[in-house]
Amino acid sequence: MNAANSAFMVLSTILVLFMTPGLAFFYGGLVSKRNVVSTMLSVFVICGIAILLFIAVGYELAFNGDIGGVIGKVDHFFLGGVSLTKLTTTKIPESLYFLFEMMFAIITPALFVGAVVGRIRFNFLLVFIVFWSLLIYYPMVHMVWSANGWLARMGVLDFAGGTVVHINAGVTAYVLSAFLGRRLHPHQDQPYNLPWVLCGTAILWIGWYGFNAGSALAINQLAVTAMLTTTVATATSMVVWLILEMTIRKQVSLAGICTGTLCGLVGITPAAGYVTVGGAFWIGLLATLASYGFVHVLKARIGIDDALDAFGCHGVAGITGSILTGVFATRTVNRTIVENGLLYGGGWHLLGIQTLATGITIILVAIASAAIVLVLRRFVAMRVSATDERVGLDESEHGEHAENTDEYSTEIGQHHKEFAGQLAHFNRHQS
Fold first, then answer.
1. pTM
2. Count of other CB atoms within 10 angstroms of residue 147
3. CA atoms within 13 Å, Cβ hemisphere of 215
4. Listed range (73-82, 277-286, 366-375) with the worst mean pLDDT
């Protein structure tokens, strides 16, 4: 094996895994304090579920054989008989490629958790993730990233997961939000911990280098290019969101800046290994404008309650980046692509393919997600009761709290006379 490529891919794999706890902090900081534990647990527990599922059948369904260009075949349950020491074209062991792809299977369903926090039953979410992985995620991987995949043969470009990860998760988030309905009191859901949001964003940005640069599957110029374009698009999105808030809202919010940062990371993902620095700048700018417009203008008019804007960020920015790959892709960056994008003299063909593949992804994921929900909710309740929602899922579903206040409340109860003045002042403010 190539030691340098293998070391690089080990690091990239670790970075992509690191993104999932980073996402848990990002989402956990944005939700109300009644749902912090529930949100972070719902994200983190996917690590265990997705790993076992991917080992059992997921890798085979995604990459082994082909059935109609849509799905693979399970010939080796739990990897029995698979030669994991075989080398890939970049001279890394297949076991390392397997591990890298496994991390994508973890982070993708974790993304749509943000849309449904505070009102979806934990057991419904777990069962949904299993069926969603089998019926939607693995087929999407096969169609786009397998050599025999339907969309791959069509010529779609998706360097690191614009269709497979972000549009997929974003559209699923939208469907789940539509079926769940609106939260009872969304105006009361103030962010629990904004420093956690910044910490989670920073972890995601760092991990994204494994996500995008690692998709080159070797430490080469393409990996360096992907790292550079990722950085440029992300910085552009952050600044564009900053300018939008300064000019429209007249106040700059930390939560908004972190959201804008993620829009750049999402938007550049399908194009990271195909575009120049200039292309990365325009993708970052346009993806942010699209996401900001959806979150602050269209979302309220549509009426779908996507709690943490999983569709507004991942879905909208992913759609924008996927389509714009057909505009800015160039063979001067990546000689493996067949034709240039629109801006580099390739005509409308690649843009048409990217637009068609993006549309197909949206339709297939929306229909399949809706079908899973319609069947599954006949057997498992989907939404928590109104009482449980008001109390919060931390208490009603898990019996835990992000803040342990028992010790302090007990002390106040035992010495209530000493705290009479403070409590009176507190009660006046509460009333």
1. 0.93
2. 9
3. 24
4. 73-82
